[in-house]
Amino acid sequence: MKPARPELLAPAGSMEALRAAVENGADAVYLGAHAFSARGYAANFSDKELEEAIDYAHLRGVKVYVTVNTLLRDGEMEAALNLLCRLKEMGSDAILVQDIGLLSLGRQYVPDLPLHASTQMTLHNSEGALFTKELGIERIVLSRECSLEEIKRIGETSGLETEAFIHGALCISYSGQCLLSSIIGGRSGNRGYCAQPCRKGYRLKKDGKTVKTEGTYLLSPKDLNSSPCIPALLKTGISSLKIEGRMKRPEYVAGVVGTYSRLLDRCLEDRKKCSVSREEAESLEQLFNRGFTEGYFVKNPRGELMSRLRPYNRGVFAGTVKSYDRKSRRVTVELKASLSAGDGILFAGTDREGREEKEEGWVIRQMYRGNKPVKQANSGDTVEIPFNVEVRPGSPVYRTLDKGLMDTLEKSYTSETSLRKIPVLMKAGVWEGKPLELTLWDYDSNSVTVKSEYVVEKALRQPGKKEQLARQFSKLGNTGFEPETIDVDVHGEVFVPVKEINQLRNHAVTELEKLRIVRGKRKPCPEPGITLPELVACPRPEWEHPEQPLLAVSVYSPGELEEAIDGGADLLYYGEGLFCSGKGRDRDKAIHFEADYERAVRMVRAAGRKVYFKTPRIVKDPEMPAVSEILEAAKALAADGVLVSNLGVFRLAKARGVPVILDSPLNVFNSYTLDFFCKRGAEKVTLSPELTLEEIKPLAAAGPSEAIVHGRLELMESEHCVVGGLLGGKKERCTAPCRNGNYSLVDEKNYEFPLVMDPACRMHLLNSKALCMLEHVPKLLETRVASIRIETLGMSGEEKEEQGIRKLTRMYRAAIDNYLKKGKAGTGTCDKLGKGFTTGHYFRGVK
Q1: Would you give the DSSP letter of residue 304?
Q2: CATH number of the domain at 550-712+771-838, please?
């Protein structure tokens, strides 16, 4: 049995890109409105343009999904819901969402609008998929780190439609789990404004000393190209194959969509033909590449994932510099690919040891072969190109733009003759003395019948023949339709002017176009505008603010646990085994927690405090049994509960009856999301570290919340380990160099970001500066959060000696107690703890 063809889903950052996608074989497109789109820097679409785009696509049998996939502030929720209402009325086929608050409210206020879970929701396990299914989600966009086996398992277990990226740019971090752009420049990836700091240069340091590496772009992945994986992807039962690129030009969309559309057709026709041709492969490479990778579909690519030498498009290798003539200012190039006038090229300069040191771009205006001007040259030719900058012999030359290819692709979506045609069945009735009649219907059950005002006359000379009339009726020309069958029923000897046939046919086409567009529309929302209650004004009856806010401390060893208790912590989050620290790290087991939980509970109970066991942020299906052990340990040892960081573990914990506090990776950014999780059984919710003090107030009023006030924020979690990729050898199994030494990344401004690895070989990048809100504790308590937290992950040995978890905890304990007793700030300040602290986003916020 042949697998069904999955949907080919294309990006559309503009109307031109939309046309390019449709004309080149996309089954669906995804695009963004001007607001609340995860590609805030794309052109995106106004309301009027959205409706035009949806109508254009629906006319041609293509679905349209609109991205409303950013985190929302309280004050933005009404506007977002009203946008959903307008999109519903316009006929959008589905909406992609990230924000849980919007998801839950969308199901309540716009129940008949299909919702898809964005990749920003970090869905990577079956439990998480089932959680979204219970909320009414129809399709999930899986994390890019999911393998073919995991895609298949999640789809079969959940029964949901699954969608995965197959081509384009990759993020080094799990989507939805990156704060790097946010912390560095205030541009939040969760809000659609990622500034891509991962494409900048970094140095690797071990124990304070720089490690020599090949290339400096240590966080910059290659581009995904899964064309070799398409046969295996088809076997997973995946519903949709998604191409990245809403920031790309229309020609890119046309070329990539066309290639994958043809590939899918060939695969379903004959498995032996299921590969791209040499010309198609070169076209994909030419359109845009930082080098290609198959990502995580088949295996962990380790170091092969990365494009460390360059973070941008290089195009196709075109030849090598033979010499440079300073007098004529011409560079002589021996070609390995064709070049034409108008092509863009890049000279990658090399030093005497052959290392790339500088690059110069150029558009070919003139080119000479044997001193004769030529417009085109082929592989094997030697040509001279005027160029004002001296280039070393041996330097590689790349063709960054193929003008001929771009012109061809542009014609595919700008030509007056549409490439995308909808097959229609035609039946015409021609009766003497009656009006002409024409019926058109398509395979989507749309049918129109029109009659002419003209009355068919009796032929005075030569009557119209059935074949002639059929040819004239079937001339659909530049319309979006093509006749599959035409049946003309002729009665009598008739004469019909060509003009009358054309008018009737054009009328029928117009009516069928209207019908195809109108059938996608939906009724407007019952009310002209949605107005939401402010949860701060009507808090949940069962929620009462505690008289005294609590102090939580997150620790990772029995010694740290003892210090936090002695320092006066009320809540202890215990996570021994979640991270690898010190020397002699055991990397042989994927995730296996061997913490002495029983001892930890005894210590905490003896001090009259509460303890919650920490669980990982990322948990693949094979790792879920180990997390189940933590849940069972929490129940068996009568711990107070667990701290969870993903939707799947939240669902599993609630099913096992284990009390839950939600951690910050779940990106709770508004009071509606907080209210949702509290009603679903969360004891308390840790707020997004991207919120300001003012933005926290309505959330703290809506339910029990916690704010992180001290420690190095985790800026990303990555399936790729920089240390292992660089130093772990070339074989598939890493030699685990991180067992010995402490590693960090240093950016171009000399800020140092510590790296922490976990037993699953995932990399955690921590902020270069520790968050410190010690002197601002009164302002935090005035927001009425239920607790504040100290995070100790990533504290260096020096920091532990200088500050000490006991001392640090005591200072925050004193700050809380002093404010509660005296109503003012204490004497503790961050300066007393050292230098280089930050207040994060509490006072500046994010875009």
Answers
A1: G
A2: 3.20.20.70
